[in-house]
Please model this.
Amino acid sequence: MVLGLFTELMTSGGIQRTSLHAAAALVAFARRENRPVRFLSLKDPVGWHEPRVAGEVVPLLGFGGAKARFALATVATVPHIDFAYIGHPNLAPLGIVTKLLRPRAWYCVATYGIEVWEPLPAFRRFGLKWARVVTSVSELTAQRVVTAQGLAGRPVVIVPPGLDPILSGDGARRSLPLLPPGRILLTVARLTAPDSYKGVDHVIQALPAVLSAVPNVYYVVVGDGDDRGRLERLAVDAKVRDRVLFVGTKADEELAGYYHACDAFVMPSHSEGFGIVYLEAMSHGKPVVAANSGGAPEVVEAGVTGLLVEYGDVPALASGLTRLLTDRECRQRMGEAGRRRVEARYTFERFRTRLESLLTDAARS
Model:
């Protein structure tokens, strides 16, 4: 049996979406190997679920955050497995359990970004060290996980995320939003206090300068969380509250509509391990403005598919946004370059092929 252990798959967020893609790839891998699969998710709602990705049905048992029940279900399944895919380093200690209960089994642990950039508690570090292979979404995270978790000499393989087909700009179904006439800047992000590094506040601070050059611009923020109130107050203080539209979390088809409707995507984040939302915007032919920080420079090619500014440099951010909004030819050129980059490197099919090939090689090692 192939066992998949995940924190959650059915909520918004880059880790969740990439985990769901990994689960779909595991379904295909197990089918080719003629093995059953069992997917357990710690935080998804209690019961069985069957989300779909690119035609693959992902059978998933959620535990509603009940850690003890999740751990017991894992222990009960381990005697029947050959391989476990652990979808988050917080769950890495369960890999140790796997090896203790079934020494012939092996496991893989997926890593993403800031959760592994600093040393983890001892059991999680040991869980990473005992893995046959650790994956990373970017070169930056691969380097940091080796250094921070003491994995020198251990295999850390880069498997970049892929674009979810439902959010593709090429033929995806989309529900177009009702937006004011004018230029639209878009951010898609969780608005929680731990995610304040996403840079939404910096875009709001840059907006007055942008408005002085582009009077008909609106800033649309898709997402929600406990930091939304602070950001709304910041927009009031900056006297741009009528130009900042907080529209809440959107389902995939609605989200695709927002990508399609915007003129440029902006998320000047300090600590993205990768930034899957950049791919989503690029697939719709939109230029991207990101911070020259974290894994973003591996995704956004400066001057080609978008612009990179130093994190926290609000004047530079305002200048970059103004440049894009006032230069249609530049927007189109960068947007088309981004679309080609996604098609060449970051499709879901490429992600699935990379992960299946990695698992096949690891199983034979």
Notes: The first helix runs from residue 14 to 32. The longest strand covers residues 183-188.
